[in-house]
Fold:
Amino acid sequence: MDASLEHSTITMVTTLFDQAERRDPEHLRRWIVLVDGANHQLDCLTQEAERRGVSIDIIVDFVHVLEYLWKAADDLHPTQPTRATFVQQAARDLLEGHAPRVIADLHAHRRADTAADRPTPGLNRAAAYLEAKQPYLDYHIALTLGWPIATGVIEGSCRYLVKDRLDVTGARWSLPGGEAVLLLRTVIANGDFTEYWQHHMRCEYQRTHTTLYQEQLDIAA
Structure:
């Protein structure tokens, strides 16, 4: 997994594809991309895949989809038990490959509420979101093939690596400074600090001693 505070989405998507191609240079394996649904992110992924001539399967994080279902449920059902029942049924339908049915139901509810002049902002957002992301809601295929459908592990890592270190009272970070701290924190968390530090000291010695003295010897000669 690659992440960055300093670099843009385009740069990181390029880095992601570089790593994937090193692992599968002939594009023989299936490439699965799990996303949160940001349009710019999706555009970068599809453009980079097209540029490299590789086929990718994109799945939108199921937890993000659930958040939109809960927003729709808040508008449709005034009590908690019926809200939970609505979300449970809609989620099950999505997992079983019935995204078109769920989207059609949401639009039907939206039209009915519009005709009744009832404001339903959560329902409207949910219907629009699921319709826009429908090509990436093939959860029944993902589950059958053992693909991940949620980014919980990644988001947990972000909380541990980023929030616990950078989101402290009074902290002020530049992007390069924050990036450097998080890279070092990642090395430590992965248990690679000793090996990294030895490599760092060798490079530092080469840069400040060996190279410098060699230049002086070359001049003297």
